[in-house]
Amino acid sequence: MMEAIMMSPGKISFREVKVPKPSDNEIIIKIKRIGICGSDIHVYHGKHPYTHYPVIQGHEFSGEISEIGSGANKFKMGDKVVMQPQVVCGKCYPCRTGNYNICDNLKVMGFQTEGCAREYFKVDMAKVLKIPSSMSFDEGALVEPEAVACHCLGRSGLKIEGKNILILGAGPIGNLVAQTAKARGAGKVMITDISDFRLQKALECGIDFAVNTSKSILAEEINKAFGADKADLILECAGVQEVLSQAVANARKGTDIIAVAVYPEEVKVNLGFIQDRELRIIGTLMYQTNDYLDAIDLISKKKIFADKLITDYYSFGDYDKAYQYIDKVKDKVMKVMIRMPE
Predict the structure, then answer these.
(1) Cα dihedral angle (72, 57, 81, 136), rounded to 10 degrees?
(2) What is the CB neighbour count within 10 angstroms for residue 263?
(3) What are residue 257's phi and psi, to 5 degrees?
(4) Can you give the pLDDT at residue 73?
């Protein structure tokens, strides 16, 4: 089988290796689709803070089971599956208290350990979840980013139903966060960006308000949409200084701001402003099993327009061209999907 290795920023090589064999509790997945996400792009540019080279990428994917270890009897050949890509120790305080997604020794496949950018992938069955046979492989590959959205919306403890939600950043994650807020019964949802293409995509996905902050004054648009009480919850999904500052500046007193994006560079926050207004900035990292189950449920019931996010496809052999294309078109792209060989 073939696997793709990012040898250094911007350089992808391919090599042929043997198809792996499963041990008792392992399964072999024939990879069907691999999604390229914003964090992968940071790795491609050498700006991911927690990745070293060489690295085999790929953490959001779908596939079908091609071989089963003797102990993995809850699965059968041909099952459509997805996988949680965290590698955790199971011994640290977060792991012992149910927060394995922030394990003290966390490694993530595709970043700190081997990912799925290969034709067949061996994995412990405990990390694998079945998806409905009616779900497409395209939709399956979007379960992982949708699980990110499901997890982050629960981080403040705020009941989303009936609330006004503001999402800053209309890339794939921001779009999915906005869609998930709608699916959970939010009153009104606003999303912002400086890309008209991405904002139009958000409107196509049913988001109530899409604001280009390079053309409109955000504070005025918030007042028009939500009134003087502003947003009940803000989620920062862009990962840049200016947008985080917008979140803080436009927050109602006592509001929670969820930091969803990966920040490739250090940002500054006006802590005096946060203290004076009793704002809370809350981190969110990845997901847990219940978030994956929620994501599968929402996508399978068509409450999330997953297919609308896929703008382009590339073959496995053109992995590097997919990144070059993303760099070229920039904000005219949403989710680029790698199609694996049949």
Answers:
(1) -160
(2) 16
(3) -120, 120
(4) 87
Q: What is the pLDDT of residue 286?
A: 97
Q: CA 60, CA 41: separation in Å to the nearest integer?
A: 13
Which tokens in the block code for residue 60? Answer: 């959001």
pLDDT value, residue 194: 98
Q: Which residues contact 38 (CB under 8 A, 6 or more apart)?
A: 171, 172, 173, 239, 261, 262
- Cα–Cα distance, 264 to 69 (Å, whole number): 39
Cα–Cα distance, 143 to 114 (Å, whole number): 20
Cis peptide before 264 (omega within 30 of 0): no
Cα 36 versus chain centre, distance: 10
- 54 to each of 4, 84, 264, how far by Cα in Å? 10, 22, 19
Whole-number pLDDT of residue 264: 85
Residue 325, amino acid: Y
Domains of the chain, each with CATH number or no CATH: 2-147+287-339 (3.90.180.10), 156-283 (3.40.50.720)
Q: What is the pLDDT of residue 342?
A: 86
- Could you give the C-alpha distances from 28 to 72, 92, 124, 335, in angstroms and in order? 11, 29, 9, 26
- The Cα 22–Cα 65 span in angstroms is 11
Largest CA distance in the chain: 62
Contact present, 179 and 207 (Cβ < 8 Å): yes
Q: How far is CA 76 from the centre of its chain?
A: 28
Instruction: Note whether 165 and 222 are within 8 A (CB).
Output: no
What are the residue ranges in the chain where pLDDT is below 50?
none
Q: Which residues contact 331 (CB under 8 A, 6 or more apart)?
A: 193, 194, 195, 197, 198
The model's pLDDT over 129-170, given as tens digits with 9 standing for 90+, comes to: 999 999 999 999 999 999 999 999 999 999 999 999 999 999
Which amino acid, one-letter code, is at 250?
N
| 3-state SS class at 145 | helix
Q: What pLDDT, on the 0 to 100 scale, is given for residue 325?
A: 97
Rounded CA gap, 62 and 53, in Å? 24
